[in-house]
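tl;dr need the bound structure. longer version: we got a ligand (D-malate) that a collaborator sent over and nobodys looked at where it sits. i said id run it. heres the input, straight from their email, havent touched it
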Amino acid sequence: MTEALSFIHRFEKGTDQAARPLLLLHGTGGDENDLVPLGRMVAPDTPLLSPRGKVLENGMPRFFRRLAEGVFDEDDVRRRANELADFVVEACKQYGIAAPIALGYSNGANTAAATLLLRPGVLAGAILLRATLPLSQPPSTDLAGVPVLILSGAHDPMMSPQGADRLASVLQHDGAVVEHRTLPSGHELSQADVSLAQQWLNASHSWAREAQARNP
Ligand code: MLT
Protein backbone atom coordinates (compact mmCIF):
# COMPACT_ATOMS: atom_id res chain seq x y z
CA MET A 1 0.00 0.00 0.00
CA THR A 2 1.21 3.52 -0.68
CA GLU A 3 -0.12 6.96 0.21
CA ALA A 4 1.84 8.83 -2.45
CA LEU A 5 -0.28 10.26 -5.28
CA SER A 6 -3.74 11.56 -4.51
CA PHE A 7 -5.39 8.34 -3.31
CA ILE A 8 -4.27 5.72 -0.81
CA HIS A 9 -3.81 2.75 -3.11
CA ARG A 10 -2.13 -0.54 -3.78
CA PHE A 11 -0.18 -1.24 -6.96
CA GLU A 12 0.75 -4.78 -7.97
CA LYS A 13 3.14 -4.95 -10.89
CA GLY A 14 2.10 -8.37 -12.13
CA THR A 15 4.39 -10.46 -14.28
CA ASP A 16 3.39 -8.97 -17.63
CA GLN A 17 4.06 -5.23 -17.61
CA ALA A 18 2.90 -4.96 -21.22
CA ALA A 19 -0.55 -6.38 -20.41
CA ARG A 20 -3.52 -4.02 -20.13
CA PRO A 21 -3.74 -3.05 -16.42
CA LEU A 22 -6.86 -3.32 -14.29
CA LEU A 23 -8.16 -0.49 -12.11
CA LEU A 24 -9.88 -2.15 -9.13
CA LEU A 25 -12.75 -0.18 -7.56
CA HIS A 26 -14.20 -1.68 -4.40
CA GLY A 27 -17.77 -1.52 -3.05
CA THR A 28 -19.01 0.33 0.06
CA GLY A 29 -16.99 -0.64 3.12
CA GLY A 30 -14.15 -2.11 1.09
CA ASP A 31 -10.62 -0.87 0.64
CA GLU A 32 -7.64 -1.14 -1.70
CA ASN A 33 -7.05 -4.78 -0.71
CA ASP A 34 -10.57 -6.03 -1.35
CA LEU A 35 -10.61 -6.73 -5.06
CA VAL A 36 -6.97 -7.77 -5.48
CA PRO A 37 -7.79 -11.52 -5.26
CA LEU A 38 -10.63 -11.06 -7.79
CA GLY A 39 -8.35 -9.03 -10.06
CA ARG A 40 -5.72 -11.77 -9.92
CA MET A 41 -8.32 -14.46 -10.72
CA VAL A 42 -9.60 -12.51 -13.70
CA ALA A 43 -6.19 -11.43 -15.00
CA PRO A 44 -3.34 -13.44 -13.42
CA ASP A 45 -0.43 -11.50 -15.00
CA THR A 46 -1.53 -7.89 -15.42
CA PRO A 47 -0.61 -4.83 -13.34
CA LEU A 48 -3.33 -4.00 -10.77
CA LEU A 49 -4.00 -0.47 -9.55
CA SER A 50 -6.34 -0.36 -6.57
CA PRO A 51 -7.31 2.93 -4.87
CA ARG A 52 -9.32 3.33 -1.67
CA GLY A 53 -12.47 5.48 -1.91
CA LYS A 54 -12.08 8.77 -0.04
CA VAL A 55 -15.67 9.24 1.15
CA LEU A 56 -16.56 7.76 4.53
CA GLU A 57 -20.13 6.67 5.27
CA ASN A 58 -20.32 5.64 8.94
CA GLY A 59 -16.62 4.81 8.69
CA MET A 60 -17.04 2.79 5.48
CA PRO A 61 -15.00 3.92 2.46
CA ARG A 62 -16.85 4.71 -0.76
CA PHE A 63 -16.02 6.58 -3.94
CA PHE A 64 -18.82 9.18 -3.78
CA ARG A 65 -21.47 10.42 -1.35
CA ARG A 66 -25.02 9.12 -1.36
CA LEU A 67 -28.04 10.69 0.33
CA ALA A 68 -29.75 7.33 0.93
CA GLU A 69 -29.40 3.84 -0.51
CA GLY A 70 -29.63 4.25 -4.28
CA VAL A 71 -29.95 8.07 -4.05
CA PHE A 72 -26.70 9.65 -5.13
CA ASP A 73 -25.28 13.11 -4.47
CA GLU A 74 -24.67 13.73 -8.17
CA ASP A 75 -22.49 16.83 -7.67
CA ASP A 76 -20.25 14.62 -5.58
CA VAL A 77 -20.39 11.85 -8.22
CA ARG A 78 -19.05 14.34 -10.78
CA ARG A 79 -16.40 15.80 -8.49
CA ARG A 80 -15.16 12.42 -7.27
CA ALA A 81 -15.14 10.80 -10.73
CA ASN A 82 -12.94 13.65 -11.96
CA GLU A 83 -10.68 13.33 -8.93
CA LEU A 84 -10.35 9.59 -9.53
CA ALA A 85 -9.65 10.16 -13.24
CA ASP A 86 -6.83 12.59 -12.33
CA PHE A 87 -5.38 9.97 -9.99
CA VAL A 88 -5.51 7.30 -12.71
CA VAL A 89 -3.67 9.57 -15.15
CA GLU A 90 -1.00 10.38 -12.51
CA ALA A 91 -0.62 6.73 -11.48
CA CYS A 92 -0.29 5.53 -15.10
CA LYS A 93 2.60 7.97 -15.57
CA GLN A 94 4.22 7.09 -12.27
CA TYR A 95 4.06 3.31 -12.80
CA GLY A 96 4.61 3.41 -16.57
CA ILE A 97 1.38 1.59 -17.43
CA ALA A 98 -1.25 2.08 -20.14
CA ALA A 99 -4.79 3.34 -19.52
CA PRO A 100 -6.49 0.62 -17.46
CA ILE A 101 -9.69 -1.36 -17.79
CA ALA A 102 -11.79 -0.74 -14.66
CA LEU A 103 -13.05 -3.70 -12.68
CA GLY A 104 -15.60 -2.25 -10.30
CA TYR A 105 -18.09 -3.75 -7.88
CA SER A 106 -21.26 -1.99 -6.71
CA ASN A 107 -20.26 1.56 -5.65
CA GLY A 108 -16.96 0.98 -7.49
CA ALA A 109 -18.84 -0.09 -10.63
CA ASN A 110 -21.01 3.03 -10.47
CA THR A 111 -17.87 5.12 -10.08
CA ALA A 112 -16.28 3.45 -13.11
CA ALA A 113 -19.47 4.17 -15.09
CA ALA A 114 -19.34 7.85 -14.05
CA THR A 115 -15.65 8.02 -15.02
CA LEU A 116 -16.36 6.55 -18.46
CA LEU A 117 -19.12 9.12 -19.03
CA LEU A 118 -17.32 12.16 -17.61
CA ARG A 119 -13.69 11.49 -18.55
CA PRO A 120 -13.59 9.45 -21.74
CA GLY A 121 -10.09 8.33 -22.64
CA VAL A 122 -8.96 7.73 -19.06
CA LEU A 123 -10.29 4.16 -19.00
CA ALA A 124 -9.66 1.70 -21.84
CA GLY A 125 -12.81 -0.23 -20.92
CA ALA A 126 -14.73 -1.49 -17.92
CA ILE A 127 -16.14 -4.55 -16.21
CA LEU A 128 -19.09 -3.30 -14.16
CA LEU A 129 -20.33 -5.75 -11.54
CA ARG A 130 -23.78 -4.86 -10.10
CA ALA A 131 -23.89 -1.34 -11.56
CA THR A 132 -26.54 1.26 -12.25
CA LEU A 133 -26.56 4.59 -14.07
CA PRO A 134 -25.05 7.03 -11.52
CA LEU A 135 -26.15 10.27 -13.25
CA SER A 136 -29.75 11.22 -14.00
CA GLN A 137 -28.66 13.53 -16.85
CA PRO A 138 -25.60 11.78 -18.32
CA PRO A 139 -23.56 13.93 -20.69
CA SER A 140 -23.21 12.82 -24.28
CA THR A 141 -19.69 11.43 -24.60
CA ASP A 142 -17.53 9.80 -27.28
CA LEU A 143 -16.91 6.22 -26.19
CA ALA A 144 -16.49 4.83 -29.70
CA GLY A 145 -15.24 1.24 -29.56
CA VAL A 146 -14.68 1.19 -25.77
CA PRO A 147 -15.46 -2.34 -24.53
CA VAL A 148 -17.76 -2.62 -21.50
CA LEU A 149 -19.08 -5.70 -19.73
CA ILE A 150 -22.02 -5.22 -17.34
CA LEU A 151 -22.95 -8.14 -15.08
CA SER A 152 -26.18 -7.69 -13.14
CA GLY A 153 -27.91 -9.92 -10.58
CA ALA A 154 -31.52 -10.92 -11.38
CA HIS A 155 -32.34 -10.86 -7.64
CA ASP A 156 -30.21 -7.86 -6.68
CA PRO A 157 -32.23 -5.85 -4.11
CA MET A 158 -29.90 -2.83 -4.45
CA MET A 159 -29.63 -2.33 -8.21
CA SER A 160 -32.83 -2.26 -10.26
CA PRO A 161 -32.74 -4.04 -13.64
CA GLN A 162 -33.94 -0.75 -15.21
CA GLY A 163 -30.89 1.11 -13.84
CA ALA A 164 -28.46 -1.36 -15.43
CA ASP A 165 -30.46 -1.36 -18.69
CA ARG A 166 -30.35 2.45 -18.81
CA LEU A 167 -26.62 2.40 -18.14
CA ALA A 168 -26.11 -0.11 -20.98
CA SER A 169 -28.16 1.95 -23.44
CA VAL A 170 -26.47 5.26 -22.52
CA LEU A 171 -23.01 3.71 -22.99
CA GLN A 172 -24.09 2.07 -26.25
CA HIS A 173 -25.52 5.34 -27.50
CA ASP A 174 -22.09 6.92 -26.88
CA GLY A 175 -20.47 4.23 -29.04
CA ALA A 176 -19.22 1.79 -26.41
CA VAL A 177 -19.28 -1.92 -27.30
CA VAL A 178 -21.47 -3.16 -24.46
CA GLU A 179 -22.19 -6.71 -23.38
CA HIS A 180 -24.85 -6.83 -20.63
CA ARG A 181 -25.62 -10.15 -18.93
CA THR A 182 -27.99 -10.80 -16.03
CA LEU A 183 -26.99 -13.68 -13.77
CA PRO A 184 -29.26 -15.70 -11.45
CA SER A 185 -27.75 -14.08 -8.35
CA GLY A 186 -28.22 -11.18 -5.96
CA HIS A 187 -25.91 -8.29 -5.13
CA GLU A 188 -23.15 -10.72 -4.17
CA LEU A 189 -20.66 -12.00 -6.71
CA SER A 190 -20.51 -15.59 -7.89
CA GLN A 191 -18.12 -17.87 -9.76
CA ALA A 192 -20.07 -16.99 -12.93
CA ASP A 193 -18.97 -13.35 -12.56
CA VAL A 194 -15.34 -14.46 -12.43
CA SER A 195 -15.62 -16.78 -15.45
CA LEU A 196 -17.52 -14.28 -17.60
CA ALA A 197 -15.12 -11.46 -16.70
CA GLN A 198 -12.14 -13.69 -17.60
CA GLN A 199 -13.64 -14.70 -20.93
CA TRP A 200 -14.64 -11.16 -21.80
CA LEU A 201 -11.20 -9.80 -20.92
CA ASN A 202 -9.43 -12.43 -23.03
CA ALA A 203 -11.77 -11.72 -25.96
CA SER A 204 -11.36 -7.94 -25.67
CA HIS A 205 -7.57 -8.33 -25.54
CA SER A 206 -7.44 -10.36 -28.73
CA TRP A 207 -9.91 -7.97 -30.34
CA ALA A 208 -7.65 -5.01 -29.39
CA ARG A 209 -4.58 -6.85 -30.74
CA GLU A 210 -6.35 -7.51 -34.06
CA ALA A 211 -7.43 -3.86 -34.31
CA GLN A 212 -3.84 -2.78 -33.63
CA ALA A 213 -2.53 -5.16 -36.29
CA ARG A 214 -5.00 -3.71 -38.81
CA ASN A 215 -4.08 -0.08 -37.89
CA PRO A 216 -0.52 -0.19 -36.57
C1 MLT B 1 -23.88 2.94 -4.52
O1 MLT B 1 -24.01 3.61 -3.53
O2 MLT B 1 -23.08 3.19 -5.43
C2 MLT B 1 -24.79 1.79 -4.61
O3 MLT B 1 -25.94 2.02 -3.88
C3 MLT B 1 -24.16 0.53 -4.18
C4 MLT B 1 -23.48 0.56 -2.85
O4 MLT B 1 -24.12 0.57 -1.82
O5 MLT B 1 -22.28 0.53 -2.81
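gonna send this back to them w/ a short note. The domain at 2-214 is CATH 3.40.50.1820 (Rossmann fold).
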